[in-house]
Amino acid sequence: MEAMHKSGPRNRITGMVRTESICATDASPRNLVAMDAQTAPKHLPYQIDPTKNRFHYYENLWKRVGLALLRKHCDVRGKTLLDYGCGRGEALSLFSAAGMTVTGTDTDPECVRIASSSGKTVSLNPADPVGQFGPKSFDVISCFHVLEHVPSPVQTLNHLREIARDYLVLAVPNLRYLNWIFHRKFDLSFVNEGHLQGWDHLHFRNLAERHCGLEFLEWGTDATILPLLSESTQRIFGQKLIIALETGLFRKLFPYHCLSIIGLFRVKT
Questions:
Q1: 29-267 belongs to which homologous superfamily?
Q2: Would you tell me the crossing angle of helices 239-246 and 54-73 to the nearest 10 degrees?
Q3: Rounded Cα–Cα distance for residues 166 and 148 (Å)
Q4: What is the tens place of the pLDDT at every residue in 142-167?
Q5: What is the CA angle 181-187-192, rounded to 5?
Q6: Could you tell me the residue ranges of all domains in the chain?
Q7: Cβ of 125: how many Cβ atoms within 10 Å?
Q8: The whole model's pTM is what?
Q9: Tens digits of residue pLDDT in 91-143
């Protein structure tokens, strides 16, 4: 990672010093693999390099998967999108290139500034996003690796449902991620301290459908990492081959053990 937050502002929801932007995507070797027991990063990196770090590549992959899911179910051209927790703005670029009218929002002023190069951005009021944007004000809401950071996912997801007219594209870290299969010690240095909760596919669908008024449509998959095999393959053969395996064969063999839970949901009528 090339740049990190130096310090976080006080969280407007909890009153605690916020160590991460609300959008914090944190797919990095330190906290997704932690093979060498490095401490997990506390902040969203303001710059990433997908050509040098496969986890940075995967940060954009789950956004591309989300867009592909949406395009399978509707013609996205001309539709409006709010990216909730827009971070550096990669999703804004992707969805805009697909023909959507995009808006990004984040609690971090630096993320709002950086993402503005990819589309319209506004500072988020997380206490009342419905009041800020209005009910049913966007056709689609995207929310990538955000819900694990918020104090109340039920409240946040219900707010997003109220803002959306049609679809929500959601992604969170997958608790069935296979790297933990050989772990016998549960050291907090392996965990991003901003992660307040987590899910597998069943429990995430339970959250969305039974508690937040959403209808599940389809899952997407990004990359499956196999313990030991993935890391040894990268060391011997390099990043290009391991990305091909983790997004190809490994993902086909273990689709629900990917890095992310990626789901397309529709607002119930």
A1: Vaccinia Virus protein VP39 (3.40.50.150)
A2: 30
A3: 23
A4: 999 999 999 999 999 999 999 999 99
A5: 90
A6: 29-267
A7: 14
A8: 0.84
A9: 999 999 999 999 999 999 999 999 999 999 999 999 999 999 999 999 999 99
